[in-house]
Design a protein that fits this description.
Alpha-Beta Plaits, Biosynthetic Threonine Deaminase, domain 3, 3 domains, six-stranded mixed sheet, four-stranded parallel sheet, 20 helices, 18 strands
Length: 512
């Protein structure tokens, strides 16, 4: 989709930020001290509160600056965008304030709260497809059919200039800022912030933070060219971009000092930490910057710096809070998961608890008899430090216990801990697959219809994480001679249902 012809591409980027029209709808947000994070990290940490915006996200800045700069002729054509969330709300609100017609194309997987928010601003909502890519294709068709002006979510100089006003506000409140951590998806936010700060305070370091499964910009800058990812993660949906923009890539290449990636668990821990500082609940992408600084500062040995993390948005789906609560302890290093094998004899369980667990806090404890000689236990242990974790493992070794650390095992965290049961003696040649599919009404039925009925299902566990995509763990009985055909069927399903083989996962072999 082409941007409008008045894209300001030849204008001075710094001047464009300084004259950006954002405050007709956006507000100057607070720069809130974070005393707990500051004490923990040995730096002066501040949170830039873009969750305070009218649409609970920074996206209103760039969207409005773009739309406000349209010509009269362009305004009459109306505006259109494809988005599953924050950009959609920014475009809808800006168009409403300026009296323009707006169309927003959203995937069918978009949570109802976001659809209702966009419709509430008077925009026409078109639901199409199960992914952003499918919605974007439909957006292009409507744009061509109606001659509307496309508002890009990030790869537009006017959008970038609007986001850059955040950097100006940070500098106004903390002219001594040393480092700014910025969430990165397509690069619109960090491009504007980095350009402004490098122009007015060049010694300030700009650090981009990306999810481990969606780091397109960092990889592109490292490679010196645009990189397109085959797939991106769905948890931090606000930054789930397969390829950054051409304009934003150049800005990041020239002005961003470093990139860091964080895990889903680290984002969950950051959401909890932000809540502890502000009592607000940000969305996963909104917590990226805090997750990044909590990882980056100790790793670099940095102390006594003035550090800002941009809380980019708070459009959190309530259903997702369960998943966040389950995973934040792991991400913050306050919990560890273990599979422990004990001998099957009288008092063996009591000995483990008395001699090894002792006064330690347990978060969960699942016991399953494996054979007449041994049993397996799935244990969650509450921790206060890495030293305490090492001490627990040393106690297990002294006791002669065989154990496996499952704290980074996604199958264990997402499925096994909820279904510890043991292997059926009647199951033969079991193959375990984890499938991901869009979370929408009828999606599970569609998935079951797509499965080939020639293979018996031996296990099935469906988990909704409150995000755009959910996971299901499926066990199949597949004879060795039929494995080639089975793999071919999975290959044919991959465009609609991503999957990975977990048959050799130790969590599965011990507990399922």
């Amino acid at each position: 989709m082409k941007a409008s012809r008045r894209d300001n591409s030849d204008a001075d980027p710094l001047k464009a930020i300084l004259v950006a029209r954002v405050y007709e709808v956006a507000i100057k947000t607070d720069l809130t001290p974070a005393p707990r994070l500051s004490a923990r990290l040995g730096n002066r940490v501040f949170l830039k509160r873009e969750d305070q915006q009218p649409v609970f996200s920074f996206k209103i800045r760039g969207a409005h600056n773009k739309i406000a700069n349209l010509s009269d002729a362009e305004r009459k054509r109306g505006v259109i965008c494809a988005s599953a969330g924050n950009h959609a709300q920014g475009v809808a609100l800006s168009a409403a304030r300026l009296g323009l017609n707006a169309v927003v194309v959203m995937p069918r997987t978009t949570p109802r709260i976001k659809i209702d928010a966009v419709a509430g601003y008077g925009a026409e909502v078109v639901l199409h497809g199960d992914s952003y890519s499918e919605a974007a294709r439909r957006c292009q068709e409507i744009c061509d059919e109606r001659g509307m002006v496309f508002v890009h979510p990030f790869d537009d100089p006017l959008v970038v200039a609007g986001q850059g006003t955040i950097g100006l506000e940070i500098l106004q409140d903390r002219p001594d800022v040393d480092m700014v951590f910025v969430p990165v998806g397509g690069g619109g936010l960090i491009s504007g912030v980095a350009h402004l700060l490098k122009a007015l305070r060049p010694q300030c370091r700009i650090i981009g933070v990306e999810p481990e499964d969606s780091g397109a910009m960092g990889r592109s800058v490292q490679a010196g060219r645009l990189i397109r990812l085959e797939r991106v993660g769905g948890f931090a949906d606000g930054v789930a971009v397969k390829q950054p923009g051409e304009y934003t890539f150049r800005q990041c290449r020239d002005y961003v000092d470093d990139f860091i990636t964080v895990s889903t668990d680290e984002m969950c821990a950051a959401i909890e930490r932000i809540h502890g500082e502000t009592r607000s609940i940000v969305e996963p992408s909104g917590a990226l910057a805090v997750a990044g600084l909590a990882k980056y500062l100790p790793a670099q040995g940095l102390r006594d710096r003035v550090v800002v993390a941009i809380n980019s948005g708070a459009n959190m789906n309530f259903d997702r809070l369960r998943f966040v609560a389950e995973r934040n302890q792991l991400g913050g290093g306050a919990e560890a998961l273990y599979a422990i094998t004990i001998p099957e004899r009288p008092s063996a369980l009591r000995s483990l608890v008395r001699d090894v667990v002792g006064e330690r806090s347990l978060t969960e404890f699942h016991y399953r008899l494996a054979t007449r000689n041994e049993a397996h236990i799935f244990v969650g242990v509450g921790l206060h430090s890495a030293a305490e974790r090492a001490d627990f493992e040393a106690a297990l070794r002294r006791g002669g216990y065989v154990f496996t650390d499952l704290s980074d095992n996604d199958l264990a965290k997402s499925h096994v801990r909820y279904m510890v049961g043991g292997r059926s003696t009647d199951v033969r040649h079991e193959v375990l697959q984890v499938f991901q599919f869009p979370e929408r009404p009828g999606a599970l039925a569609d998935f079951l219809d797509a499965l080939d009925s020639r293979w018996n299902i031996s296990l099935f566990n469906y988990r909704c994480h409150g995000s755009d995509y959910s996971q299901v763990l499926v066990g199949f009985e597949v004879s060795p001679g039929d494995r080639t055909r089975f793999d071919a069927v999975l290959e044919g399903m991959k465009n609609h249902f991503r999957c990975r083989d977990e048959s050799a996962n130790p969590a599965a072999s011990l507990f399922l």
